[in-house]
Automatic annotation (TrEMBL):
Residues 394-405 have a biased composition (Polar residues). Keywords: ATP-binding, Kinase, Nucleotide-binding, Serine/threonine-protein kinase, Transferase. It is found in: Membrane. PROSITE patterns: HMA_2, PROTEIN_KINASE_ATP, PROTEIN_KINASE_DOM, PROTEIN_KINASE_ST. Residues 333-397, 435-499 form the HMA domain. This is Protein kinase domain-containing protein. One of its GO terms (cellular component) is plasmodesma. Pfam families: HMA (PF00403), Pkinase (PF00069). Residues 304-322, 408-428 have a biased composition (Basic and acidic residues). GO terms for molecular function: ATP binding; metal ion binding; protein serine/threonine kinase activity; transmembrane receptor protein tyrosine kinase activity.
Amino acid sequence: MPCIEDETPHLQIPLQHIKLATNGFAHENLIGDGGFGKVYKGVSEKHGRVAVKRLEYRRHGQGDREFNMEIGLLSKSQHQNIVSLIGFCDEDGEKILVYKHESNGSLDRQLNNKDVTWIQRLQICEDVARGLIYVGSQLGIIHRDVKSSNILLDETWRAKVSDFGLSKVRSQNPSYSSFVISNPCGTNGYIDPCYNNDGYLTQKSDVYSFGVVLWEVLCGRLTYASSSKDDPFRLTLLVQRHYKRQTLDEIIPSYLRKQMDIDSLRTFSDIAYQCLQNTEERPTMKQVLQQLQKALHVQQEAKKLEEEAKPTVEDEKMREELTYPSPLPPPSSQEVVLSVLMDCHACAKKIRKCLEGFEGIKYVHTDCMTHEVVVKGDEIDPLKVLERAQKNTHQQVKLLSSSVTKPPAKEPKMLDQEEPSKQEEKKYEPKPLSKIMVTLKVPMHCEGCARKIKKYIMTMKGVKSVVIDLNNSHVLIKGTFLVAALVDYVHKKTGKDTVIVKQDPIS
């Protein structure tokens, strides 16, 4: 049987170079300690930043077989989600593997990192699934030790599967795709119970182990706590219990839960739960990947909607104009009040534009709620104002009131003359808006539409609550706002025809 050194001479690295890179395996460069041995970081003049794995003989039963297996598999591997082997050393009794150093370390150390977002976690899980599919389909092996500490993260948070020392090569014959192992090996908490108890090893043994990792990612913790290693399956039992009760919110960290779209969480937890079932009930790794891709897509779409729903400066300005009528100026001697149907902010703006500066008009105020237009100036002809408004709006315009009289001559102010009462001034101030409950009919065909509409409406000033009735395409809104403004805002943001079904004041 050919020696591994003879097959891969280009990967051999002199021991002296490795000692130089790690400063003689200095303790301050130690970054890990696993079943194979200790792992050191280092800097090589030729290869840059490296991770050096140094075999310790008779440690957990690993030895030459694992060393040769790792070199044999990784020397043939070319995949972005598989760790990169730079070389090895088999010299002076030392057996050493040298890898590219991944700057964000292993996944187990990032599980509770609040800076790792839900979208990043989904991308990491998708990367691992791709790597395991490559391992199973292209390399033809069962990993046997899938766990979060064997998943490395580079500077862009791309995940890479590592540690193939325990891997088992599958038969090329599909009829012999499983093994019966007399002495199962793996890591407590991750090892497939069917394999651990009966020695029955299949590709779906890796699916189980990956399922444990998925739950770790979701819950932000390892499968076992350092204080409870006597019960290594503690997390898997916990998550299955909460999954069945639909109480996963109780075990998901709050900083993660508030980022999650409910459909993304449901898709992710469903597939993670299936991974932990009996062998025949587990999905294939390709099916796992498909569901992870779906969960990621749903989350990205939800984030996109959230970004779109954030009010712009223009939206804020429009909302202020729509929600609160502008204050009226002090009373003038000439005032005309018209009644004009105004469906939206654009209608009101059009009326103001056509009347401002016309025939002595100095001020125009529109109120979409009451459909009233108040015009003020020094010399106003009510009929001309009415005619101009009707001509430009193509709406029926009514003259509600007119106080067109010549202003009295300005008299000198007497010492005992009182200022206009505050009560008199107040009658020209806009009435405060009352609380209201409105039901709108807005076309929507799916939960995505409903979520989008709800997010848009909740950003409108004055809106306190929004309840969606998807079956009837109804939206129930409560708050303090102008109904016409609300309808116009919903139409502007969604492009959907909006109809007022019902509106009632709230006492």
